Every structure is written in C-alpha cells, then in structure tokens.
User: Fold HSF-type DNA-binding domain-containing protein from Clydaea vesicula.
Amino acid sequence: MVNFVEKLHRLLNEESLKHCISWSNDGLSFVIKNSTVFSKVVLPVTFKHSNFVSFVRQLNLYNFHKENRNYHRHDTITDEERAAEPREYSHKKFIRGRPELLKQIKRKNSPVTKNKENSKSSNSNTETLDCNNQTFNIPTVESNDFHLNKFALNLFLI
Assistant:
C-alpha cells in the first residue's frame, strides 16, 4: 500500500501537474503554487478529499516544515490573493530523485497510538483505572480512546 509520503513524491514527478505543484529548484523542498487550484484539481484525485487544511495536517504529522520565503506580503491581502501565493514545504529526507529515503519518513505517533502501543507491548487487553478507591480493569478497544472509557466509567459510578 502506498502511503501519504510516497503518493506525494510520485505526484511531484508528474509533468502534467507542474503548474500546480512542483519541486523547488534545488530539489530539497516542494512548492504548491496555488492552494485553491491544488485543492480542486489535485487533492480529490490523489488523496480523495479536497481539504487543503487536512493535507497540511498530514504534512505536519510527517514532520514536514513550511519554508518561510517571504511569499506572504502583509495582512491586508485578500483570501483569494493569499490562496494564489506559493507555499513551500520541506523534510530532510524528502528529496527529488531519492525515493529510497521515503521509508525513513515516519508519521508522528498520537497520544492514543502511544497508549495502544504500550498496551500491546505488555500483552494486556485491559487498562487499570483507580476510581473512588476501587480498581477496575477496563478492556481496551482498538477504535476507542481510553480516556473516553474512563469518562464512561465515571458516569456509571456517579
């Protein structure tokens, strides 16, 4: 299965999209030339959504950084003008012509993911909760946040 970073790398090698997204001259970053066009043309086809903010959130989860190249002039420009300004992002392992480095780019773990990993590593299918001087073993559920289980149990005990 191709992950987000691999899709992005392939996307940047598409000649037909150079008007929308391309590598920087040095190949150490990439530039989205117009976020509105990118959202309407590229995102729905490649990432199955058209939300630019979600795309940027994914970049952040993989430790990409926005380059400040003084594209943004000042606060008095319109939203339309701001969307038309280029946005540049980089990652030290995301380099033009170096697809072998992509496997080294890892997604950040969320706090929920860390809790799941901890419970898996101890081979335990329960989490322990101390409440009102009583101890409860709560089954861990892959799709639920442990904090939600705590909240539900506290409501039950009231």
